[in-house]
Design a protein that fits this description.
alpha/beta, 6-stranded parallel β-sheet, 3-stranded antiparallel β-sheet, globular
């Protein structure tokens, strides 16, 4: 059977288009929307180094600004952001933000959860319930409450135990922007743990002095998620932004980072 020159050209173009389409599909994130939830004693600037890395890879990134006044207030802040996204979401939580995403992650748009040096409570449990069995860290001992039960990490605590892996200038910035946190919210219980029905990825900060790394690792095992040990202090996303971003990208593509 003879094949005309025109048929060969058409076939060649079709194959070329198929290869380009496959390449584009492989380079396009499976989930493009990333929502970042900061922890207690902090604000959205916690993610300042991670955001440009993710955006350079084509992700749409939004950082929630938690009011840090109650669990429900913070969960609702996350849900309002999720509602504005135009499709599936990877929800990322740091520290107390892990408790927030454990509840907010039940939203049907959320396709995966990333815990960055974070609490991961069970059904009917609180952040303090999750960390309680491990005792108090040096960082937790440096938390100071005022007469209205709002807490801050002391300057010494931030410098030595919260952000000790950063440059001194960066540590002082973390100290300057830390949000006042309503202490009793750490005892508020979640109702339904999203990690029981959603896939999880976990950054274990091996130099963490605010939450015990052993707890972070045990949570990953409990959820059946993937744990990635990163040599970093509690604010791992500021000390090791590239490595944290790689875990988030792995979650967005539902795969293990290389």
């Amino acid at each position: 059977m003879r094949i005309s020159r025109w048929s060969i050209v058409v076939l060649s173009l079709a194959l070329s288009f198929a290869v380009r389409s496959q390449s584009f599909a492989q380079s396009t994130p499976r989930v493009k929307n990333i929502v970042l939830v900061h922890g207690a004693f902090a604000d959205g600037s916690s993610w300042a180094k991670v955001i440009p890395i993710l955006e350079a890879k084509g992700y749409h990134v939004t950082a929630v600004q938690n009011p840090l006044t109650s669990l429900s207030d913070d969960v609702n802040a996350a849900l309002r952001v999720i509602a504005l996204e135009d499709g599936p979401v990877i929800l990322v939580g740091h520290s107390w933000g892990g408790t927030v995403i454990t509840q907010a992650g039940n939203d049907p748009k959320v396709k995966g959860l990333v815990y960055v040096a974070a609490n991961m409570p069970d059904d009917g449990k609180s952040a303090n319930d999750a960390s309680g069995p491990y005792g108090l860290t040096l960082g937790q001992k440096s938390i100071q409450l005022d007469d209205k039960h709002y807490g801050r990490v002391s300057p010494e605590g931030v410098i030595k135990h919260f952000a000790q892996g950063l440059t001194m200038a960066e540590r002082r910035t973390v100290l300057a922007v830390q949000g006042q946190t309503y202490g009793p919210m750490l005892d508020e219980k979640i109702t339904q743990a999203a990690w029981k029905t959603k896939p999880t990825w976990h950054v274990v900060a091996t130099e963490d002095q605010m939450l015990f790394p052993a707890m972070e690792e045990a949570q990953a095992k409990k959820s059946g998620g993937q744990a990635f040990k990163i040599p970093a202090c509690h604010v791992a996303m500021l000390q090791q932004p590239q490595k944290v971003a790689e875990v988030i990208i792995a979650a967005a593509n539902n795969m293990k980072p290389q």
